[in-house]
Structure formats: C-alpha cells, structure tokens
Amino acid sequence: MSDLTQLGVKDIRDGVRAGDFTAREVADSFNAAVAGAAALNAFIVTTPDHALAAADKVDAARAAGSELGAMAGVPIGMKDLFATDGVQTTAASHILEGFIPRYESTVSQKLWDAGAGMLGKLNLDQFAMGSSNETSYFGNVASPWKKAGSNAAMSPGGSSGGSSSAVAARLAPAATGTDTGGSIRQPAAFTGICGIKPTYGRCSRWGVVAFASSLDQAGPMARSVEDCAIMLGAMAGFDPKDSTSLQLPVPDWEAALNADLRGKKVGIPREYRMDGTDQAILDSWEQGKEWLRDAGAEIVDVSLPHTKYALPAYYIVAPAEASSNLARYDGVRYGLRDLPDGSGLQDMYAATRAAGFGDEVKRRILIGTYVLSAGFYDAYYTQAQKVRALVARDFERAFQDCDVILAPTTPTASFPLGSMNEDPLTMYLNDVFAVPASLAGLPAMSVPAMLNEHGLPLGLQLVGKPFDEQGVLNAGLAIQQRAGFVAKPEKWW
Ligand code: GLN
User: Fold this and answer.
1) pLDDT digits (tens, 9 = 90+) for 385-414
2) Given the CA of residue 428, which atom of ligand 1 is nearest to it?
3) What region does 460 belong to: left with phi over 0, alpha with psi -120 to 50, or beta?
4) Strands 404-408 and 457-464: what pairing?
5) Is the beta carbon of 159 within 6 A of some atom in ligand 1?
6) Fold (topology level) of 4-259+468-483
7) Which helix (H) or strand (E) holds 46?
8) Does any ligand 1 atom lie closer than 6 A to the CB of residue 461?
C-alpha cells in the first residue's frame, strides 16, 4: 500500500468511503509518523488511542452500511488551545500544566462527530501569543523546512506552529488552528500549507482558551483549499454557548468550490506595499495577480488608508482583552498552584502567576493592564477601538469596488529560531498584513504560492467580505491550480 501519510483530508475521506483502505490503517500510519517526529516538537501530548478509537468507529459504521461523516477516517492534530475532555489542555503554559478538562470544546466535538480522530495536542506559542513558536513552555517547535545550504532550525510561524509544522511534515493531514491576529495564516505561509480564518463568529469559541475574545477565531490548516473547505464545514456552526456565535447556516463550501473567477474583481490594497517587505514577497504578489487574472478576474486598485494604524491598535486591543481573560489563572481553579510556606491568598496569586506565565504573556498582561488603567484608558484603549472601527470601514469601502482582496500573508519568509528574539517589535511586525482582517472580523486565507530563492515557502493572502468564505476559497483555489505548489520539506527529523 502506498504511504497513506501523503494523503490529504479529501483523499482519506474518499478512500475510506470507497474501501480502498481502512480508517484504522490511516490512523496507524499517522500515529507512526507522529511517533517518529519528536525532533520537530510539534506535539505536547500524543493521543494515538484517540485516533485509533475514532478510526475503529468509522470502520464499524462503514461495515454496517451507515452514513459516514464529512471527516470520517481523518485523524487530525488539535491545537492545545482547545479543551479536550480527559486530555491535558495547556495553551502551552506552565500555569495550565496538568489541567485535564472534563468537557470538550464545541469545535473539537464537532470534528469528532464528523468522524475525525485526534493524533495529539499540538504545541503553540504560550496562550497563542507569538509569531514564531518560541514562547511555549514546552519548547520551540521546528519547521520541517530548512533554508537551502543551512542546517539552522527554522520557525514554523506562530502561534499555530505545532499545527503548521505537523501538517507540512505529513504528521497529520490537517490540524486545527486559531487566529487572533494572524496565527493561522502566518504559520501556514511559513510552511507551505493552506489555512483559513473564517468570519468572526463562524466557529464557536466555547472551550477554546481565550486570548482576545473579540478577535479569536478557530479555523482549519491543511495542504489544499479543498481540504480546508471540508474541515471548515465540520468546524463551523451556530453555538448557543458562545454569545458571539453567528446564527447563520453553514454553506456547503466544498460543493460550491469554483475557480472560475470571470466577473469577479480582485482588489490590490496599495497601502500593503510597505518598506521592509522582501522583494520575493512583492514578486509573488505580482504573480498572484497574474494567476487571478488568468482565472478570469479583473484586478483593481483599492485603498485601505488606515492600514498602518492597524498593528498598533491590535497591540492595544489584544493585550487589553488578554489581561482581563488571563486574570482567571490565579492558582485557585486550574493547573498550577504556588503557595509559599506560611503565605496568604495574595501571595499565592502572585507566586502562581510569576511562576506560571512566560515572559511574553507577562508582557501582554502588563501592556493590557496599563492601557486599561484609569489614567490611560481613553488615550490608548478608546483610541485603539476607534482605529479598529476605521480599519473595518476601510474594508467596507474597498469591498464596494471588489469581491476579494489579494495581499501577501507576511512581509518575509520563515526565519531561523532564535534570530528575532531581541526586539519584540520586529516580531510583532510579522503580522502587519494579517492583523487588519482580524480587527475587521473578515474571512482570510493563506495559500502557498512558491518557494523563495532560499527554498522557503511564501504564501498569498485572500481577504473576503463578511460571511464570504466561499469567495475566499474560490480565489484560493484559482491560485492553487496555477501555483502548482507541490514542494515538500526534505525529511531530516
Ligand atoms: N502573533 C500575534 C500575536 O502574538 C497573533 C497571535 C494570534 O493570532 N494568536 O498576538
């Protein structure tokens, strides 16, 4: 039998349905790949038995002639930000080490209901704060990609870096990600895979460890646009347990995929031509325009005048919400408790939080607390909220002239682990193209375009109107068909 780990979601689902192989054979193959890839450090815990049990259920259902779900027989990786019943859930933090939820997040439950199984919990930046996967308490994640002629371990992006690394390395056909300010799209771009952040509210946040609640969205990461469409369909849907959940039916995105873009207008935002963007990225953007034109689209210039204020506004809004969300980790309810001898409640809070949070998380809590403090609230937080509204209005106006926006996903390709640590600001700049769509709550996807001169993947980003995941997926498909991106990382792990 050929190597099943080379297959994606659609091929596994169809193969299991057709009886070409069993779900158990698929789970066995991926479990073995995961077990052999410790060097990537993509998983915090592995759950081979979960994957096998789900597979056996699918094989039994097929034998009984029952209908199979959209993800039947597909084992996936679960970002360790989703609460999983009976399986440690840490958000890659020390403070949640040993926390075993007695409940399942809505999104993961939906995936299990659709017939998927879990290979393990994927590493990430601590509390999803980061762009390189270097802030995890459980160690850095390495990308399977290397720069030509160098042996340095490269960043898989962040915060969903365990997800991107695992999917690019064929340890999983797909994985969940979450995106607050780029954490699905940037790691997807760094590792040559696809990832879509749907419209805010499409996927329930219930049971997902909160970072910045008004921005957090779950989404799929996989190696093709089709696979993303299938998996997003299984993840999305109204959830009464999430007050910001969208009360809208979930379209059949897979069935409506269509790469014919005749009659569609693709907007090119002129403010995304920023200093510091690699020439190769600008070239890939030009190439992307050509591909979409070839698919029948008309290319038009659009303006998003407040783009340069989006990143600073994000780094006020997101830490503000994080400082409030993370107040719950106090040593009383979850995970770590540090109670120094003879000390009281306040000491326990302080000791637990000092020991339990990493530096980046503390930095965000400090920034967030500062911008929300009585003296500075209006100067920072209120101002940032106004900027957020202006960024959203820019998109609204641009979408009067176009159907979908094409931009780079990141200003650079992946970088070596450890190379960006001196200055948090350079790290924050990684998300300069991703954050505007997050602030506006819009669906946005990264699709692999090409390799740069060092053999590293580059991604192109598509941003759509609210609820128009289909438009984003269709333009993504048009790029995928023309880019013909088949490059794979060479196995070294
Ligand atoms: N890199 C960004 C941050 O650190 C985005 C993270 C995310 O989307 N979760 O805030």
Assistant:
1) 999 999 999 999 999 999 999 999 999 999
2) 1
3) beta
4) antiparallel
5) yes
6) Amidase signature (AS) enzymes (3.90.1300)
7) strand 43-46
8) no
